[in-house]
Write a structure and sequence with these properties.
The protein has 398 residues and is of the alpha+beta class. The protein has 3 domains: 166 residues, Reverse transcriptase/Diguanylate cyclase domain (Alpha-Beta Plaits), CATH 3.30.70.270; 58 residues, 5' to 3' exonuclease, C-terminal subdomain (DNA polymerase, domain 1, Orthogonal Bundle), CATH 1.10.150; 155 residues, Dna Ligase, domain 1 (2-Layer Sandwich), CATH 3.30.1490.100. The strands form 3 sheets. It has a 5-stranded mixed sheet. Strands 11-10-12-9-13 form a 5-stranded antiparallel sheet. Strands 3-2-4 form a 3-stranded mixed sheet. A hairpin with a 7-residue loop joins β2 and β3. α4 runs antiparallel to α5 and α13 runs parallel beside α14. The chain is elongated, with a radius of gyration of 27 Å. The relative contact order is 0.11. The protein binds thymidine-5'-triphosphate and magnesium ion. Magnesium ion binds next to β1.
């Protein structure tokens, strides 16, 4: 099957968010950055870019070029939350995502065209979904490899959608200046130009990479390949954990409700700890109960907010268990959390700030729904220290 790679990159990300949230800034010169005298520009709206303002420029310089600009401090919490939203959309298409920064990612979309008429339709669909969910514009490139996909997303910015078809790789890059080769900075550009190479096509026309050795050393082969539109690097997706859970088969069947209660404490504690260790929060809490006749039941509940909190896990676990109205001896119990928040959600400042509040609300909601009887007891450490055989369902990957 032909490999297809997509690169998604939000347009003037921070500045576009500020324009979205402050309609009076739309169409105007917006510069987001550190506002001290030593501050630098994080990004500028496309309107301000026309006057020469760009990322990493000093604010002092930007003010010279653009004295009437609207200068704003970044609101990282908001950008993080949007980034998470965009990643959730991308995850609807593929789990093979390599985030490069808050506003940029590679996706391996190989095989997805079955659902669309082709790579262009696929790119259009994701752009539209991002626009509908966030009110922001992403530029998208779809190509046979990462290098070309990134170039393609950039070349028609803002609001670009470019597909590089198979067979057109070298043609696509040939007219571009050598500085468009990935990893070629100012120094290398200068050296290439001094050797007479200005356009990428000039490198591609060489019989092999040998002529580039004196200029690029051990990078010569890589440059020569890229110049012909060749790049075999895979999308380095984060291997995502699907669920975290613990289960236990008991030597002696469980009957005593108080012991069973303690077991749910134990599972909640253990699973919450593992979630926190891995920086994960999940929305779906599931329990498993196996009786001594091997009949097995499982129940699950989706919570309002993703959680890694043992009290929440315990309450929900107990609630699910109590609803089963069990009066048979139990051979095995287990508790699992899945349906994790997006990868970037783990570091979202926004989430950090609001999590405690959200959690409190979720807990109140649970209590309102299932009664005050489901309360936390400090019984975990009195848990019977019988010999128990423990089986962790280790992190499943896709
Ligand atoms: P970019 O994607 O490089 O830039 P952009 O989204 O602002 O504009 P476009 O993609 O349309 O060219 O970076 C994403 C965000 O990262 C950007 O909005 C601000 C931040 N950033 C910095 O803080 N400093 C920098 O030097 C760069 C390049 C970006
Ligand atoms: Mg961008």
């Amino acid at each position: 099957m032909r490999r297809w790679i997509m690169h998604v990159d939000m347009d003037a990300f921070y500045a576009s968010v500020e324009q979205r949230d402050n309609p009076e800034y739309r169409g105007r010169l917006v510069i987001v950055g550190g506002l001290s005298s030593r501050g630098v520009v994080a990004t500028a709206s496309y309107e301000a870019r026309k006057l020469g303002v760009h990322s990493a420029m000093s604010i002092v310089k930007a003010k010279e070029l653009c004295p009437d600009g609207i200068y704003l401090r970044p609101r990282f919490a908001v950008y993080h939350a949007i980034s998470e939203q965009v990643h959730e959309i991308m995850h609807r298409y593929t789990p093979y995502i390599e985030p490069l920064s808050l506003d940029e990612a590679f996706l391996d979309v190989t095989g997805l065209h079955g659902r669309f008429t082709g790579p262009y339709a696929l790119g259009k669909a994701i752009k539209e979904e991002i626009w509908e969910a966030t009110g922001l514009v992403a530029s998208v490139g779809v190509a046979p490899n990462k290098y070309l996909a990134k170039l393609a997303s950039d070349i028609k910015k803002p609001n670009g959608l470019v597909v590089v078809p198979y067979g057109k790789e070298a043609e696509f890059v040939a007219p571009l200046p050598v500085k468009r080769l990935w990893g070629v900075g100012k120094q290398m550009t200068k050296r290439l130009q001094e050797a007479g190479f200005y356009k990428i096509g000039q490198l591609a026309a060489l019989p092999d990479e040998r002529a580039l050795k004196s200029i690029a050393g051990n990078q010569a082969k890589r440059l020569y390949d890229m110049a012909r539109g060749i790049d075999e690097r895979p999308v380095e997706y984060e291997r995502q954990v699907h669920s975290i859970g613990n289960e236990l088969t008991y030597e002696e069947d469980l009957i005593d409700p108080q012991l069973i209660d303690q077991e749910w404490y134990f599972f909640a504690h253990k699973v919450a700890k593992r979630l926190r260790q891995q920086n994960l929060k999940g929305r779906t809490i599931a329990i498993k109960v196996r009786f001594n006749d091997f009949e097995t039941l499982s129940r699950q509940k989706r919570t309002e907010v993703p959680t890694d909190n043992e009290e929440t896990l315990y309450r929900v676990g107990m609630m699910l268990y109590n609803k089963l109205n069990i009066n048979k001896p139990i051979r095995l119990l287990g508790l699992t959390v899945s349906d994790f928040a997006g990868a970037l959600g783990q570091t979202s400042l926004f989430e950090e700030e609001t999590f405690q509040e959200d959690l409190a609300r979720a807990m109140d909601g649970l209590e309102a729904k299932f009664g005050e009887g489901i309360v936390m007891k400090g019984a975990l450490w009195q848990r019977a220290t019988q010999q128990k055989r423990e089986e962790e369902n280790h992190n499943e990957t896709f």
